[in-house]
Amino acid sequence: MVVLNKIYTRTGDKGDTALGNGNRVAKDDLRVEAYGTVDETNASVGMARLHATGQMDVALMRISNDLFDLGADLCRPDLDGDAQAEYPPLRMVDAQVERLESEIDAMNAALQPLRSFVLPGGSALAAHLHLCRTVSRRAERLAVALARQGDVNPAAVKYLNRLSDWFFVASRAANDNGAGDVLWVPGANR
Q1: Domain layout of the chain by residue ranges
Q2: Which among 11, 13, 20, 177 could disulfide-bond with 75, CB atoms 3.0 to 4.6 Å apart, if both were Cys?
Q3: Tens of pLDDT along the chain (190 residues)?
């Protein structure tokens, strides 16, 4: 169980922070940028949940929890040292990716195929889900860059890739199963 009885520690006052394995890095380190952007994605999910009900809200809550798992995964380098760690690090698993895929397929089954790109908007929930999509895409780009440099769990990158797809399909579902989508009209304002 996590106990937080003191919020500030002053240990980062000089611009560094501790990773999950205790190593200290600069606060603008690519790993910190990656899991910080996952946290930003989660804050966007919280905003979307203000407009969600029923199964959509339940799914977003599940994703919110997954995003904390993902942040814990990304803040802990040294995949090879997992077996020797005093406490097993929390890592994303393929089952979390597969759940997103299953939910995407279920939502997509009710949608008509797209004939144009979708602009962010329609309902308030759809607009917030588009914001979630773009922030999660940025988190994915940072995680991919981090993976090129070193230790990143492949399931973490796959999860982020699938998550932005989930947000896109969910935005269409939130727009009356696509009927309320705002479609791009190329060159409409020339």
Answers
A1: 24-179
A2: 20
A3: 567 777 787 877 788 988 888 889 989 999 999 999 999 999 999 999 999 999 999 999 999 999 999 999 999 987 777 777 777 889 999 999 999 999 999 999 999 998 899 999 999 999 999 999 999 999 999 999 999 998 899 999 999 999 999 999 999 999 999 999 999 999 999 9
SS3 content of the chain, % helix, strand, coil (to 5): 55, 5, 35
Q: How many CB atoms lie within 10 A of CB 26?
A: 12
- If one looks up domain 24-179 in CATH, what number appears? 1.20.1200.10
The closest of 9, 51, 32 to 149, measured between CA atoms, is: 32
Distance, in Å, from the CA atom of 73 to the CA atom of 152, rounded to the nearest integer, reads: 8
Which tokens is 61 given? 């809550």
pTM of the model: 0.93
